[in-house]
Amino acid sequence: MQAQPTEGTLEAREGALADATDLTLTVAGAVRSYANPLDLPELRAAVKVNYSSFTKMRRVARMDLAQRIYDAALPIVAHLAPYGITAATLEELQTSINEATDAVSAPRTTNAEKKVATSKLDDTCRAIDDLLKNEIDPLIFGLRKKNPDVYRLYQEARQVFDRPGGRPADPEPATPATPTTASTTTTTTVPSTGATS
After folding, report:
1. DSSP per residue over 57-97, as a string?
2. pLDDT exceeds cutoff 90 at 69
3. Average pLDDT for residues 128-140, to the nearest whole number?
4. Dihedral (Cα; 23, 62, 112, 6), 10-degree rounding
5. So where are the chain's domains?
6. Burial readout 153-181 (b: 16 or more C-beta within 10 A, e: otherwise)
7. φ/ψ bin of 84: left (φ > 0), alpha (ψ from -120 to 50), beta (otherwise)
8. Exposure of 194 by Cβ count < 10 A (0-12 exposed, 13-18 middle, 19+ buried)?
9. Burial of 133 by CB count in 10 Å (0-12 exposed, 13-18 middle, 19+ buried)?
């Protein structure tokens, strides 16, 4: 979870926003064309948008604008067929809006999950260490004679090595110097008696 990339969710977000924006503009254009000859200024104003209307807005607000276009078109959908818009088109638009809304929140969700996973690392490492030291290590001793090869392999695998770039090991505490005293060695020569003991 901690290592999952965010690039894919960012690409999906931009693609979903682009698809929803294109379809919204198509529907808005049809509604404007319908409203103009009927002199429906409120409806015409409600759907008066262009591409920059979306690109100038924050991503989280773009689909609110798209939803407004959908809501304006829904009551008159039966009259929009001559303009190329049907109920199926509006259903597709709503689906596209929902997908884009989810895609906008996906990168933030991924980052939040990564942060939570990182915060759990210490607890996870402690749990693994406890499992090894207090559950698995005691069982392995029983293989020392029954299966010495496995025992040796496990012991090798359990060796802990300092990796470059990690936290430097704590220095060994200094050992106080032991004072030395001069000693005199006396050599005593014992005459040989020739006896063997």
Report:
1. S-HHHHHHHHHHHHHHHGGGGGG-GGGT--HHHHHHHHHHH
2. yes
3. 83
4. 50
5. 7-113, 122-157
6. ebeeeeeeeeeeeeeeeeeeeeeeeeeee
7. left
8. exposed
9. exposed
